[in-house]
Specification:
heterodimer, A: 101 residues, extended, B: alpha/beta, 9 helices, 44% helix, 15% strand
């Protein structure tokens, strides 16, 4: 366990998981296409969650490791302020809305 | 192979789920107190809930040969109302000596507010006063990383809590290392969309090891799976992990942590 490796070899991992993740990737592609096809779609119509998603997609193919951790951090609130109460707050949305968004 | 479900909200599940879990090898369930999906209007609602956790659920589980244990608290979401939360905290001692109570939980944070943090600290102090284990809920999604750090800082500020007597639940790839490095137990929750899949839980085990970590389903009233733990065992087996490692993660580790409570009497 100390070497952080998966007991499966490379080809076994591909055989086990490729189709599942191919499907997830196509789902993601279709989701982005769906946004483009929204009846009110325009270049100015953006959402902070989709902006974060596009940044996360870039992480997947940047050639660096620990992608899951880095994607989770990208979606995380890194602020240090602590509000008094949750009154009026929405539940967790999955990404952080910057003041300019 | 027998296993322990260390985090299941069985008050929200059917009796058929108990039957399925028993058939899959579950021999014990620990059930933290949590948010019911709505804010309760009176302390009496919690009195009834704690009675359900300490009396009714153990009897329901026993019909299937499953030992049922529980944790008591006001959850982080309703904890944002400090006045109400303190009323609930005041009735916990009435139930804490019940034979199936393992500790205070799942306490923690939801939106990382000062109100939530104050109630969290008061419940940590309650656990210290009654020498109870602590089970911690960490916030969802974008709030998890910040909340997990606030929680650990608050526990350490108390000064009277050994991290080895605290399980910090719902860890993911961005929080697990810090939780374990600071001496706490870590829980991986196998829950659709918002937490870990079985595959990611297996990845985390491979990356961070098998010490001070367990897996749970946190099955509740949401879309969730009371058989998530045995399914994760299948994932580990598929990858070629040994029966010893699978048993350690799904029985020995929760057994070791929970056995720190004298009320946990499951045979090894």
């Amino acid at each position: 366990m100390s070497d952080s490796s998966c007991p499966l070899d490379y080809s076994a991992i591909v055989e086990s998981y490729f189709l599942e993740h191919r499907a997830k990737l196509i789902d993601l592609a279709a989701f982005l296409d769906r946004l483009d096809r929204a009846h009110d779609s325009s270049a100015s119509n953006t959402d902070f969650r989709i902006n974060s998603l596009r940044q996360a997609i870039a992480v997947l193919n940047d050639g660096e490791g620990e992608r899951a951790r880095r994607v989770l951090e990208l979606f995380s609130d890194m602020s240090i302020d602590i509000p008094q109460s949750a009154e009026g707050m929405k539940g967790a949305l999955g990404a952080v809305q910057e003041p300019s968004e | 192979m027998k296993y322990i479900e260390p985090h299941g909200h069985m008050v929200s599940r059917t009796t058929a789920d108990y039957q399925s879990m028993a058939l899959a090898g579950c021999v014990a369930i620990s059930e933290p107190a949590f948010w019911a999906g709505y804010d309760r209007s009176a302390v009496q609602g919690f009195h009834d809930y704690f009675s359900q956790l300490t009396q009714y659920e153990p009897a329901r589980a026993a019909k299937f040969g499953i030992e049922h244990y529980c944790w008591l608290c006001i959850n982080p979401k309703e904890g944002d109302d400090p006045g109400f939360a303190r009323e609930v905290i005041s009735i916990i001692p009435e139930f804490i000596s019940h034979t199936n109570v393992l500790g205070i939980g799942e306490i923690g944070l939801n939106k990382n507010t000062k109100n939530e943090l104050a109630i969290f600290e008061e419940q940590v102090a309650l656990a210290v006063k009654y020498d109870q284990l602590i089970l911690v809920h960490t916030p969802h999604l974008e709030d998890k990383l910040k909340g997990t750090r606030l929680i650990m800082d608050a526990i350490e500020a108390n000064g009277n809590v050994s991290p080895g007597r605290v399980l910090i639940d719902h860890v993911e790839e961005h929080t697990v290392k810090e939780v374990i490095d600071r001496g706490y137990w870590a829980g991986m929750t196998l829950y659709p969309d918002t937490k870990c899949t079985a595959q990611r839980a297996a990845d985390i085990i491979e990356m961070y090891g098998t010490q001070q970590i367990w897996m749970n389903s946190a099955c509740d009233w949401g879309i969730s799976d009371p058989l998530a733990v045995p399914k994760a065992r299948m994932e580990l087996k598929h990858r070629g992990h040994s029966e010893d490692i699978i048993h350690k993660l799904t029985f020995d580790n929760p057994f070791t942590f929970l056995s720190q409570s004298s009320n946990f009497t499951l045979a090894e």
